[in-house]
Write a structure and sequence with these properties.
9-stranded mixed sheet, alpha/beta, globular, Rossmann fold, about 260 residues
């Protein structure tokens, strides 16, 4: 059973300015659902490993062969057609080790579970948090990243607050999971407050390599990712992936 947390929650003391009232309620709801896996997740904190991006071509570009546990990943792009959400969900699948949960934070009810059915993400591992405004989203993201029972948090973020961005980075380091932040089309990497360890610029390849080769393995939706930021990584490195086949390679004839 997938848990969905809505924001029709009882209000707390409005004079308490330290924590948003709904944020505290969100945190308590998430904590209750995740309590059963906390002990197991904490035991794995001291043995952090890499998390595959879900695509062979991306793992080859990343210096450690994947993402480090306790990392934030920014995905910049021009719109939904570039496949950023699909790319992020492939990473989520590999982050759900040890009984951990995936938390989706959103303002509008856009997440449609059947859309990711082909990825075989266990539905019982999903927690969907629907917020009323950006502030609640920021708080829910922070609390989810901080929990050792959460393997991945996926959300579209609009924050312009550098302090909140830094807080997310500290929280994900504490929790040991993966934060996948979908940046809106208006966001620019150089002007967006971010403490993400890895940043990608995603561009769709609508024609794909089919115009260059008749190889059946080249069929599908393709996207090109440019590595903007990564510790020990080579900035500007390119990777082209098939969204429908994570193991596919861009044919040499299409280069």
């Amino acid at each position: 059973m997938m848990l969905t947390i809505d924001q029709d929650a009882p209000e707390s003391n409005p004079e308490d300015q330290l924590h948003p009232p709904s944020g505290r309620w969100l945190a308590s709801q998430i904590t209750e659902q995740l309590r059963g896996t906390l002990q197991l997740a904490r035991s794995s904190q001291t043995n952090r490993q890499k998390i595959s991006s879900g695509f062979d071509a991306l793992d080859l570009v990343l210096p450690s062969g994947g993402y480090e546990e306790g990392s934030l990943v920014d995905l910049f792009g021009a719109g939904p057609a570039d496949g950023r959400w699909w790319i992020a969900w492939h990473s989520v699948l590999h982050a759900l080790r040890g009984g951990r949960y995936a938390v989706v934070v959103e303002k509008q009810p856009l997440f449609y579970p059947p859309a990711i059915a082909s990825l075989r993400v266990p539905i019982e591992s999903l927690v969907v948090v629907r917020c009323r405004d950006d502030r609640e989203c920021e708080w829910a993201i922070d609390q989810s990243l901080r929990s050792p029972a959460v393997g991945a948090v996926i959300a579209e973020v609009h924050t312009r607050d550098d302090r909140m961005a830094r807080r997310w980075q500290l929280s994900v380091e504490h929790g040991g999971g993966l934060g996948l932040l979908i940046r809106p089309p208006s966001a620019h990497p150089q002007r967006t407050p971010s403490w993400a360890q890895v940043q990608w610029q995603v561009t769709s390849c609508p024609k794909g390599p089919r115009q260059h080769t008749a190889d059946s393995s080249s069929r599908g939706r393709w996207s090109q990712l440019r590595l903007l930021r990564c510790p020990k990584g080579r900035g500007g490195s390119l990777a082209t992936i098939n969204l429908l086949d994570p193991t596919a390679q861009w044919p040499e004839k299409a280069a």
